[in-house]
Design goal:
With 220 residues, the chain is of the alpha/beta class. It contains eleven helices and five strands. The protein is globular, with a radius of gyration of 17 Å. It comes from Myceligenerans indicum.
């Protein structure tokens, strides 16, 4: 059972999301909060698999809430998905850096919401390849690179290849096909790279790849 917490200051939106999610046999909404502080306390108490968090709320916003959740080692199994009214909200980049696994637009289709929750719960890629590339192209133009030279040296050549492909938006199956290895082996390489680069999830691995200079955004 996938356990979900909803954090949004709009009761109507929370009710709508709850109704959509709880129709599914494998998803349970275990709690709701109307602000960031309440959401953080709820997540700490309930330890959900997925927290859907509004990016803009009075007081503690979604970015601050995400940062505090991501910084808590006891909450490493919680995948934060940011909710936004806009497809490319300027604050989405800050949310990804803070530790969010990805983001969803609030007017998302019901089937896409359900798919996103299941994908986030697995810790797999939440952003579609095209969206990943557009996000990263805009994201990396802003912050200075982090010094990840130490952790990068821990990566094997194969793990470096895998990280570059993940940063291009490829799924594990696509990585496996490109490198002529099994999907299980590709997933193992991804997981090991995440551990060595201290990435909470796949989205953080993509960011680390660009911030470290391991790969660079494509320019049209």
């Amino acid at each position: 059972m996938i356990r979900v917490v909803l954090v949004d200051d709009q009761p109507l939106l929370r009710s709508g999301f709850r109704a959509l999610l709880e129709i599914e046999a494998d998803i349970e909404v275990v709690g709701e909060a109307g602000d960031g502080n309440g959401g953080i306390e709820l997540v700490r108490r309930l330890r959900p698999d997925v927290a859907l968090v509004d990016i803009r709320m009075p007081g503690t916003d979604g970015i601050a809430a995400t940062r505090r959740i991501a910084a808590d080692p006891d909450l490493s199994g919680v995948h934060v998905v940011i909710l936004t009214n806009y497809g490319f909200d300027e604050y989405v980049f800050d949310a990804l850096r803070a530790g969010a696994a990805g983001f969803l637009v609030k007017d998302i289709e019901p089937e896409d919401l359900l798919h996103a929750v299941r994908v986030a719960a697995r810790g797999d890629a939440l952003l579609a390849p095209a969206i990943t590339r557009r996000l990263i192209d805009r994201y990396v133009a802003q912050p200075p690179p982090r010094d990840l030279s130490g952790p990068l040296r821990l990566l094997t050549n194969r793990e470096r290849e895998v990280v570059v492909l993940v940063a291009q938006g490829l799924s594990n199956d696509q990585v496996a096909e490109r490198l002529v290895i099994s999907p299980t082996t590709a997933k193992t390489h991804v997981n090991r790279a995440m551990m060595k680069l201290r990435a909470r999830d796949r989205a953080q691995l993509v960011i680390a790849a660009y911030e470290s200079g391991l790969t660079a955004p494509r320019r049209s």
